[in-house]
Amino acid sequence: MRCGPRGRTSRWAPAMISPVSRPEASSLARQVSLSRSGAVAFRPCVCSGAATAAALGPGAQAGFTLIEMLLVAAIIAIVTAVVAPMMGRSMRGQRLRIAARTAAMAGRYARTMAILQQQDMVVRIDVARANVSVGPADWNGAGQEPPEAAGLGQTSGVEVAVSGAEAGSALFEGPEPETLPPSASGHAGAVLSRSLEGVAVRQIEFLDDTTERHADGVVSIPYRCNGTCRPYRIELADDMGEAVVVEVDALGGSRLERAR
Q1: Tell me: the pLDDT tens digits for 145-166?
Q2: Euclidean distance between CA atoms 150 and 57, whole angstroms
């Protein structure tokens, strides 16, 4: 017992209660009311996760607020809208580059085969079907089978260690050269045939004195056994209007550039 200031007796309290502010008291009352009723109320929260966990107590776990989730969804939508068109343009540009490289490699293949076999070769380009075929000069593309490849043990007095087919296939991407049926190549008897997928052949122009231009039909480009050819230019374009020019000089050297 202890006497108070006016002689009244009072007992010690079990614990000292710290003063509680009015906002904290109302928040505590709401939490007690919810815990007693067993109901869960949803109320928007604009505070951070750490502040929410500290306010709810030591055993609570912080989560994502609705505003944070909406912000992340908006960022994902913006990134997708920006990146998706760029990826589409990149894929279309890749097809155009592959087609231009294929056309250039076909000329290199024909030149290599002509030199190694000492036999004139020809590159035939079907403008309508965007197909490139390589065959011997006496192949007319009308069902005639090409002559058998001669051995390369003697080529202008020089011993060659590999066959012409192996040397040509090293320059040209794809399977080994073979005789393809008309349904696959479009030209029976072709030694090699490739389709320029996803692009169209706008025109083929010869750059010698004749200055011929072809926008349709099948164009034949001769490659002589000494490694020379008629200089020419092939213009390829995709469905979006992008164009690439493959220019080949008289010695068979090729150059790729964008069409102006």
Answers
A1: 444 333 333 333 333 323 333 3
A2: 89
User: DSSP label at 229?
Assistant: B
Cβ neighbours around 207 below 10 Å, total: 15
Distance between CA atoms of 122 and 99, rounded to whole angstroms?
19
User: Is position 166 within any domain?
Assistant: yes
Q: What is the pTM of this model?
A: 0.51
Q: Which domain holds residue 91?
A: 84-258
Contact assessment for residue 215 and residue 203, using Cβ atoms and an 8 Å cutoff: yes
Residue 6 lies in a domain: no
**DSSP at 63:** -
Residue from 55, 63, 67, 58 nearest 27 by CA: 55
Per-residue pLDDT tens digits for 107-140: 999 999 999 988 899 999 998 888 898 988 876 5
Q: Looking up tokens 């706008």, which residue turns up?
A: 202
